[in-house]
Design a protein that fits this description.
The structure is a single chain. Among the domains are: 1-34; 43-119 and 129-156, Immunoglobulin-like, CATH 2.60.40.10. The chain is 19% helix and 27% strand. It contains 4 helices and 9 strands. The strands form 2 sheets. Strands 2-9-8-4-5 form a 5-stranded mixed beta sheet, with no helix packed on it. The protein has a 4-stranded antiparallel beta sheet with strand order 1-3-7-6, with no helix packed on it. The longest helix is centred in the C-terminal third of the chain and has 17 residues, at 206-222.
Length: 223
C-alpha cells in the first residue's frame, strides 16, 4: 500500500543520510562589575593659612585610589563653586589593578565676599572683621556607596603694624583702603610752664600787674 511505501522510504532516508537536528537555545550574558571605593578620604594641597582680598587661591583636591573614578566637588563657605573656578578633573591610573586617582583644582581671586563672620549673633557680628575666615571644602562621592569630605579654613590677613603704630581698622584691611578715621583728631601742643620766653594769660593778668607796680613804687618812696 501507499503507507508501507512511504514508511520504507523514510527508513531509507534515516539509514542513508545523517539527520542533523538544530535546537535554538537563548544565550544570557552576565556582566560582573567590581566596585572598589577609596580606602582614604580626599586630600587638599596648596592652601595658605591667611589670604587678603586680591590674593590668588590655588588649591588641589586629590582622591584616594578607586574603581571607577570618584566624583569631586568644591565648596566655599558651604556653597558649591562656580565652574569657572575649577581646573580639571584629571584622572590617573595607578597600580596593576587599574585603580584611578582623581584630582580637581580650584583657582580664583579672593574677595570680600569669600570671607564670612564667625557667627550670626549680634555681638559676634560687631566683632573685629579681621576674625573673618574662608572655608574651603572638597567632597568625594562614588555613587551611593561612598561619601567623604575634607575641609580647610583660611583667615583674613592681618598686617603686622610698625612699632608704636596702632593696628589699622579691619574694614580698611578687607577693603584694601588706608583712609584715616573721620573722628580722629590731632593732639594739641602744650607749651611748658617753665619756659621763660612763653607767657600766657593764665600766668599774668592786668590786676596782678597793677598791684606789682604799686608795691614797687611804695617801697621806693619809703627808701
Amino acid at each position: 500500500s501507499l503507507f508501507r511505501k512511504l514508511n520504507v522510504f523514510i527508513i531509507f532516508l534515516f539509514t542513508q543520510f545523517k539527520v542533523i537536528i538544530i535546537y535554538y537555545i537563548p544565550i544570557v550574558y552576565f556582566f560582573i562589575y567590581f566596585l572598589a571605593p577609596p580606602d582614604e578620604g580626599p586630600r587638599i594641597s596648596g592652601g595658605q593659612d591667611r589670604y587678603k582680598p586680591g590674593d590668588t587661591v590655588n588649591v588641589n583636591c586629590t582622591s584616594g585610589r578607586s574603581k571607577p573614578a570618584v566624583q569631586l566637588a568644591w565648596y566655599i563657605n558651604g556653597e558649591q563653586v562656580n565652574s569657572s573656578y575649577l581646573r580639571g578633573p584629571y584622572t590617573d591610573y595607578v597600580g596593576r589593578e587599574g585603580l584611578m586617582v582623581t584630582t580637581l583644582g580650584l583657582k580664583f581671586e579672593a574677595g570680600m565676599q569669600h570671607f564670612r563672620a564667625p557667627g550670626s549673633s549680634g555681638h559676634q557680628q560687631h566683632r573685629n572683621r579681621l576674625d573673618r575666615d574662608m572655608k574651603l571644602k572638597c567632597v568625594a562621592t562614588l555613587g551611593t556607596v561612598y561619601w567623604k569630605s575634607k575641609e580647610q579654613s583660611a583667615l583674613a590677613h592681618r598686617p603686622r603694624p610698625s612699632a608704636g603704630l596702632p593696628l589699622p581698622a579691619a574694614e580698611d584691611v578687607l577693603a584694601g583702603g588706608d583712609e584715616q578715621d573721620a573722628d580722629s583728631r590731632a593732639d594739641p601742643v602744650h607749651a611748658s610752664s617753665n619756659s621763660p620766653s612763653i607767657y600766657t594769660a593764665q600766668s599774668l593778668n592786668i590786676n596782678e600787674i597793677a598791684v606789682y607796680v604799686s608795691a614797687s613804687l611804695f617801697i621806693v618812696l619809703l627808701r
